[in-house]
Design goal:
This protein is an all-alpha fold.
């Protein structure tokens, strides 16, 4: 491969040379949406992990087990989402300066009941579902079946997580 051919593959110019049938402005907008989804996935991973460590009370065991399953699946999803951003011709976010705000504070955890933790996770999963549903619809409207399929799979995970979390705190 020639030096000019390699240069044409650099991240700075890949958006001009990527010819996959998806418009550059769509790829840029979807990469931004996916970057937000990626950050939210990290936030939910961290919260699930912190709650896994710190939950107490009579529903400790089901929450402890379920949050472990969730944070492992969520962490695996971060790679899938980031790789899709790259496939769309954009850099996956490289600065996570806001991650400090992702985790609940010690004070929040000290004063949170097991039910409070579950309801917080429910809220986070519901927001993830809304955001992913919007992005998946946009992907479908732009003939981006790969992103739409990825988000549909992620939606399935989050909706199942919601069902299980709600079942734990059902009265």
């Amino acid at each position: 491969m020639t030096k000019s051919a390699i240069a044409s593959l650099s991240p700075e110019t890949s958006n001009d040379t990527l010819h996959t049938g998806l418009k550059a402005d769509y790829r840029k907008a979807m990469s931004s949406d996916l970057s937000d989804i990626l950050a939210a996935t990290y936030r939910l991973t961290i919260k699930s992990h912190v709650y896994h460590w710190n939950v107490v009370g009579p529903i400790f065991k089901p929450i402890h087990d379920l949050t472990e399953e969730h944070y492992n699946a969520l962490f695996a999803a971060t790679d899938i989402i980031a790789e899709r951003i790259r496939a769309l011709g954009h850099l996956a976010p490289v600065s996570f300066g806001m991650t400090k705000s992702f985790a609940p504070t010690k004070s929040d955890v000290d004063h949170a009941s097991a039910h409070d933790m579950v309801f917080d996770l429910i809220s986070e999963h519901e927001q993830a579902v809304r955001d992913m549903r919007t992005a998946a619809a946009k992907a479908g409207e732009n003939d981006d079946m790969v992103t739409e399929d990825m988000l549909t799979e992620r939606l399935g995970f989050h909706e199942k997580a919601l069902w299980m979390l709600r079942a734990i705190v059902a009265e």
